[in-house]
Amino acid sequence: MSPPSRRLQTKPVITCLKTFLISYSLIFWFTGVILLAVGVWGKVSLEAYFSLASDQTTNAPYVLIGTGAIIVIFGLFGCFATCRGSPWMLKLYAMFLVLVFLAELVAGISGFLFRHEIKAVLGSAYKDAVNNYNATDAKSAAVDTIQRTLHCCGENHFYDWNTTKYFKDGNGIPASCCEENVVCSPENLKDLDKARDLVNDKGCFSLVTVAMESNLGVIAGISFGIAFFQLIGVFLSCCLSRYITNNQYEMV
């Protein structure tokens, strides 16, 4: 058995580490809430962009939502493990933090490295969606959403609709091109000269690619920030587990 004075010196260290780790776990729990919010934001704000490049909606927002939910659960687990002072629970918590760190690091690096490729694919997909617009399928709905959200019309100019099959079939320019607070009649949208003063004249192609690249940058930045934040928790968990184990051993 070690001297009582040494055990007394260890207890303040354990108490200090517990305080730091509980504070960290609460912050970690909050980062899970942030990821949940980013996932919901991605689902609402970026769904139109992703759906252009795929016949089905992307699972990326659901991945963020799922990851955020898991982090929320393990954040609470970290608080419980710290309060219990269980070495094996603290080690399990540290292992989870390492896995989250690696997953978020890979996701952040992938999003950063492939942002230009994603932008190019999205731009090409937008051109194809405009040329094959029919006002009924998912990609046409995505085009309408983008034109309303970004206040734009066509690929580079609203005149681009003149070459599409949709316009040539007598449907005119989509109503999603209309400026805000402007009432566009179907007859006016079928005449380019009359539509000139009613629709947005700015093209969507450059706006779509810039918006997507900036949004991917935000997601990658958040992933990097949260990923490196996990290392603090790994360090605190390992230190606390070691001190508790040594303290228990010294009391024997």
Automatic annotation (TrEMBL):
Give the PROSITE patterns listed for this entry: TM4_1 (PS00421)
Q: Which CDD domains match?
A: TM4SF2_6_like_LEL (cd03161)
Alphabetized UniProt keyword annotations = Disulfide bond, Glycoprotein, Membrane, Transmembrane, Transmembrane helix
The membrane topology of this protein is:
Multi-pass membrane protein
Query: What compartments host this protein?
Result: Membrane
InterPro entries in alphabetical order: Tetraspanin/Peripherin (IPR018499), Tetraspanin_animals (IPR000301), Tetraspanin_CS (IPR018503), Tetraspanin_EC2_sf (IPR008952), TSN6/7_LEL (IPR048232)
Answer whether the UniProt record assigns the keyword Magnesium to this protein.
Answer: no
**GO cellular component labels:** plasma membrane
Membrane-crossing segments per the record: 21-42, 62-80, 92-114, 216-240
State the disulfide connectivity. 153-177
- Pfam families (alphabetical): Tetraspanin
UniProt lists the family membership as follows:
Belongs to the tetraspanin (TM4SF) family.
Record protein name field: Tetraspanin
